[in-house]
Structure formats: structure tokens, C-alpha cells
Amino acid sequence: MSSQSIATWAAVTWWPATPSDLIVDAHVHAFPPEVVARREYFRSLDPHFAVLYASPRARLVTAEEVLAAMDRSGIAGAFLLGFGWSDPALCRMHNDYLIDVQARYPDRFAGFAALQPRAGAAAVAELNRALAAGLRGAGELMPHGQGYRLDDWTVLDPIAEALIAHDRPLVVHVSEPVGHSYPGKGDVSPAAAWQLARRHPSLRLVLAHWGGGLPFYELMPEVAADLANTYYDSAATTFLYRFEIFRIVAEIRGGERLLFGTDFPLLRPGPFLRRLRALDLPPPVLRAILGENAARLVSGDRSWPRMRGAAQEG
Hints:
- The chain is an alpha/beta fold.
- The protein has a single domain, classed as TIM Barrel (Alpha-Beta Barrel), CATH 3.20.20.140.
- 45% of the residues lie in helices and 11% in strands.
- Helix 7 packs parallel to helix 9 (153-166).
- 46% of the residues are buried.
- Residues 1-19 and 308-314 have low confidence and may be disordered.
């Protein structure tokens, strides 16, 4: 999509005028207080968690700390993502916490269930339990840390089919196949993510971290057609790409499937938002990326979030 096409899309987009302060962070992690307090114990239980949180500088936060950061940055709502634990029992523990948090802060958080797809029927049962309790989707799946491949259909098909039945989205970690290494990068390829979208065209799929570069392949018409129901979040952009990626990807596919996401607490939202706004994207495109797309993804009538953030970070 050319720059002129972006302007045309922005002019005819069907969304009504929305307050400029509607911001949703579509990629945030919070852990139960017990995990935060007993970090080393939980590192002993899960090898992938141990890798990601080996450094004391890798922060673990509770939902209240997320909420405080949101209020400082004027963020209305956040997708509170589950962690990709290997043990289904740890997924259930995390989901119990997310269910409780969403019940306490329904206007601010949309919780996504932690799942271990290798658990088979038990994973589907846990997904159904979490959705029945009010969670808004599933993920972030972390195949590289949970011991399966994204294109292992015996593992992924039951989860995808259950989410399609509930009309709920799935968030998946995807890695860049080139570039520098870092803890947690993994090997979840853009090709595997494309195959998942192609196999389940009705699945509302969110590919984290810009889908490992997959949107660039949407310059191929057949790939774009397969990804018509796929969203990309911008989690950890500062560590991965120049911020021009927002403009470039919007030119390729339009702004209606792009989600602002920080990967908080890995990145602070205030500086991230300032850099994004400095790009001078067309206002309707910026509004869509900052919050409208995310609100539409989890509540088609845009009934969530119902609150606005209180302030702006200096």
C-alpha cells in the first residue's frame, strides 16, 4: 500500500471519531505475586522462564505495577498476556491470577490465557475454563520454550479450532530468522506463522514482535490474502527495528491490523509512545494503531476499555 493509499484508507475508514487518548498496550506481561517474590524457585521449575529471567535486570511485575505504568502514560487498557509455561499446572496457576485481575479491573485489562498446547485435550479444557471465566483470548504461546513447533498441527489444531469456535484471538511469539541473538528469541519462523494463518483462515491471529518480519512478505499478493485475519503487534520494537517500521508496514498492508504493544516491563510505554508519535503518521492511522484496532479485536462494539489513562509521562 503506497503513502497515497494510506491517506485514502485513513479518509474512508469506517471507525467513528474516537478520543485521541484511547491507547491500548496490546502486549504486557504480569505475574502472580508469588512468582515475583520467589523468582529463583520458579526459575528452577521452568527452563524457558529461567533463561528469560536469568538477569536481575529482567523485571517481573504484578498487575498493579502494570496499572501504575499505564496511568503514568495515559494508557486506557492493556492485553495482559499469559506466559508460555511448560507445565500445564503453572499455566493454570497463571490463569487463576489473570482471571482474578480481570475481575478486579475489567475496564482496564483484557486477559489472555496461558496454555501448554502439548497437553492436548487438557489444554483445550483449560482454554475453555479460562474463556468461560472471562479471559479474552489465548497466548502468548512460546513454542520454542514449550517444546513444540508452531507448524505441528497435531498440537496446534485443537487450540486453533477451540478459539475459532469462541471467536477469540491467539497471540503467538514469532522470531526474526536473521539478526542478533538475545534471550528468548527462539526459532519460531515467519514461515510457520504464515502456515498457521493459512491453515486456519478464520482464526484471529496476533503475531508478536512484528511477526518476525512476516508483514514484509505481504508484498506477495498470495501471502497477503492468507494473512487477511492476522494482526501484528509492535512488542520490543526498540530492540529489533528502526521505528520507521510503523510507517513501512502501514504502507504495505494499511494500519487496520497493527497493534501498539510494548512488551512491558521490558520497555517503558512513555518513551515508546513519544517515538511513535514523532513519526507523524496520518491521525486516523495513528489512532487505529494506538488503540482502536486492539479495542475492536477483543470487543467488536468497542465497549472495552471504558476508562482513559490519567496522565502522561514527562
